[in-house]
Amino acid sequence: MRRLFLGLMMVPLLLGACAKDVVGTARGVIEADPDNIDFGQVFVGTEASKLVTLSNTGRSQVQVRASDFPSGYDMRPSELSLAPGGRAEVKIAFFPLREEPFDGQLKISLSNAKNELITLDLKGEGVKRVVEVVEVLDFGTIKLGDTKTLPLDLTNLVEKSVNLTLSITGGSDRTAFRVDDGAVELPGGATRAIDVSFTPANRGPHAASLLLRPCASCQDVRVQLVGSGGATMLRPSPSVVSFGTVTPNESKTNYFGIQNVGDFPATVTSVFLVPDPDRDPAHQDAPPTEFSVATLAVPFVVQSSETVQVPISFKAEAQAEPRKFAKIQVMGPDGLYFEVPVDGKSGGIEVEADPGTVDFGRQPKNFAAKKTFILQNIGESVAIELYPPSEPANYTVAAVDGTSAPWHLNSQNANTMAFEVTFKGSELQEYPAELDFPIYVNGAMSAEQPYVTVHLMANVVELPPCDLDISPSSLRFGAVTVGRGVQLPIEVTNQGTTECLVWNFAVESENRVFAAPGLPNGSKILAPGEKISVGIRYQPTRITGVIDRANLYFNHSDVETPRAVVPISGLATSFCLSADPNPVAFGPVPAVPQSLQVYKPFVVRNCGTDVVKISRVSMASGYSQRFTARSDEALPVTIASNGTKGFLASYKPLDLVRDVGKVEVWMQGVDEPFLVETQGQGTDEACGVLCDWPTAICPAAGQSVTVNTQIVLNGGAYSPGGHPTTCSWTVASAPVGSSVRPVGTGCTPTFTPDLVGNYVFELMVTDQLGNRGACQHSLTATPWGGIWVELFWDNAGDLDIHVLNEDRAPRQNQSSWWSNADCYYGNCQRGSLPSPLWDGDANATASLDRDDIVGTGPENIRINSPSLTHAYAVGVHNFSNARTPVTGTTNIYCGGNLVHNATSVFTATKQFEIVGSVQYNGSTCIYTPDGTRWSGFH
Prior knowledge:
- The protein has 938 residues and is mainly beta.
- 0% of the residues lie in helices and 52% in strands.
- The protein contains no helices and 75 strands.
- The strands form 18 sheets. Strands 30, 32, 34, 36, 37 and 38 form a six-stranded mixed sheet that branches. Strands 66, 67, 70, 73, 74 and 75 form a six-stranded antiparallel sheet that branches.
- The radius of gyration is 42 Å and the shape is elongated.
- The relative contact order is 0.05.
């Protein structure tokens, strides 16, 4: 049964003079539709579910909770609130654990309703699988358009005949699979094969499911159908062969690869040169004679993933000539596979721009945008001078290295020079332009190539103001080990409905420990929903004792809009921590109709040489707060070098969004925490094994038991995926001074409360995948009905509780204590009682049930039937506890009620204090304080 928590709802009364009911006194009425469910037959170890609508037809809000579950059933959510006129759907789940009928009533308790209880009649039967079949039918890789058929053996596991209905499901891929039979009759114990076919519609993997239903009310038997569509595909590598400029009368050989990137071996029937009239109109009928391709033994086969290298040569003419062009055709049995363009030039200079067109794209008004390009002589290596171009309006150009014209292209700078062009536009329009650089050789303008031209494009636009989401709003690396680098993203998302212009990204820092590899260059247009991810790297080189800081800046909307600023911080530390896993990824977790809280463990390793003390674990602000984290052990915990400690993260999504959190692991003496990322996604879909989180099943109601009485923590575990699951009970909270823990392992350990008060337990269940689920259970420990005295203390060592029969000896007389008038460790434990019995009755005689010598208690003494005619004194003795000062806490209960709570501070051993005296009156006690203290006593 599950543990349910139900908060009390206070309904205010509106007082008035009328005799009729005032608003607020009318109660709700809950109806269920349907009020009975028949699940039919469901396979053991699986789950089926159906929806029930709950309606409040009354006039007041009603609290609804499932109070009694029949075996094998669950209601999700198990509690909810329904406003007047409100409706809600709950899911009734059936998960048979045995092969037998599961019939029963689900009871739903109602608070503030005329009908205090409604019931749902539930029927279902757990059955074993009646059909044996393979779980996966794999067709392998099939050529597009071909069909492959495989037999699927079906075996009837029962004696009677079954009639299987067959269907295929699984999204768009289902059409690639086919089964000819819609139904199959299978005699008892028989095996029959059916044909399943696969015809891939496109390249890549296909997956679907063949569903076999043995009866109308039975759950489907599922066979996963998988296969892949394949193709024969060759491509060149590289896609273009360029010889550049070759010295006259010399030859040059390059290679290109025939690369098989398809799924099957491919046959090449010929490789030959053809003209390229589009680029070289002078050669319409035959390719230039300068090119030749090696003679290959054809046909030949290229295996899948194999590359065959083909040599191609270019022999330069005796003098400089224009560039020549051709194409290499690679043919197969069915025609052309691909063409490879080739080019080459005999001698001379050839200065080109890279890129040939500098496109600034869309820019804001009045912003000076900058871009770079290079000019390079790819021809013969001769001394070239470049002179500045006439600068078109709105553009300026300068050498990146700051040198003035004329600029030189020669062997000293590898015939290459970089330039920066700046654009600034003030009108909403396009700005096409060209930069023509004059080329000089030997002091005169080159007749062969007078100019090299760079084409320019820009478009000034004005877009609506940006609506941006910057996540995180501040980037915090936390504590990072010196010498280690950590990279984290900052995501800028256009969450508006119109396009957004962002530009001028820059990271500014006081030192170089921060870097931004791959920082966006120039301006970017973000479509609605589009985002840019900026990676920031932090790599501290030394410990400074202060937090390193930087900022990511960028502009958006227009130049008048203030720049966006993302603060960045990190702290260098000598400690070295690592987490496994990091991030802690929960994957998809159900968020609606009921949010599921799930758990995942992670460990933190000390990868340094110094001992690390973990003082606190928390969740970082500025991230999703739907995560929690805690240590497996009570904090602080110490991690030795190369040691580990366990931690537990939880996630409870509230809606269908992706959540990211940061766990802060704080180290003693360090001003920033070590950070561990958590990730999760809320979902409302059935997501298969990814959502098969185990469920912890706690008792449905809290327990109440007399203190020192053993109970069973009757828990359970359920795994929707059928994974083996283990249980572990822990004490989440207990009365101050309690030291007991559950005894035994598994789902049903025992527990004996040692102090009066409230206990909360947590049951954690873990499946073999490491996924976890938890629930909580409460227990109230009540005192015995007569007199109950309990003692606990703060420093480990031996303190003792004493109770004195004041009818037999006065409490102020030292000789009265440590006598048969006194119940203490010497005469009143392990079943023995003071002799003679007090008041002639064992039930009227005190009993010491717990005696602790080495710990912090508790100890207790009880009297089941105290006398009504005389009082009892309570004393506390520091027998041998040298860890002083030590504080003892004494609680005295009479008739089940706390009548006194006192603390006694001892500064030396052999100190004794009379706490007070109690006179029982049949239901409670009259307490008289005392406070007498003796030193060096016993």
